[in-house]
Amino acid sequence: MILRPFFRPLLPPDGTNGMLEPWLQSKGLSDADQVLAYFAVSKLGEAPVDGKTDTNPEGLTAAYGKWASAVAARLHAGGLSCKVLNKEAFQKQMLEKLIWISAFMLVGARHPGATVGAVEKEYRSEVSSLIAELASAAAAEKDLVFEEAMEDRLCAYSRAVSHFPTAVKEFKWRNGWFYSLSEKATAEGKPDPCPLHTSWLKELKIV
Hints:
Elements: E1 2-3, E2 9-10, H1 21-26, E3 34-36, E4 62-64, H2 68-77, E5 83-84, H3 87-109, H4 116-122, H5 124-142, H6 150-160, H7 175-187, H8 195-203
Parallel strand pairs: 4-5
Antiparallel strand pairs: 1-2, 3-4
């Protein structure tokens, strides 16, 4: 989510929870304020589930930019956590969340009916392999180094929202970014940086 003054969201046409950097750059908004929301509402009227986990009890929601402190204050007033980060730290956390949703949704889709919690508990080896692969590809593409114990953080968040269903949605904004890295490498005659990811996308006839 990208927030302007008065907190009116500016969003791409059909993607609100994924890799927005290419879209932002295309609109001349590379330095736009952003919020990485690690909270969710199961249905209308229910209280939000905050992104506090056993590995990050302080919460995972983060904001970046000129209005980040104001956004954090509003979320705090609503009983939700939010930390203010610089651009580099925010980018790392954004990519971690992209890896989380891309990995857990894809593994879950391979096991119809599996919730996020079931993926973490019953298909841990699958999602662990995919997390490692996607993290390596993202780190190489963005020339950065992630903090250690990413898998532990992402699995902890999955336990916090264990009842959420899984499905591969908004492909362009989520798994599609990793698949574009695979396509680019293949076109250049290089090895696929995400072979497991590509294989499972094809298995499910998503690509």
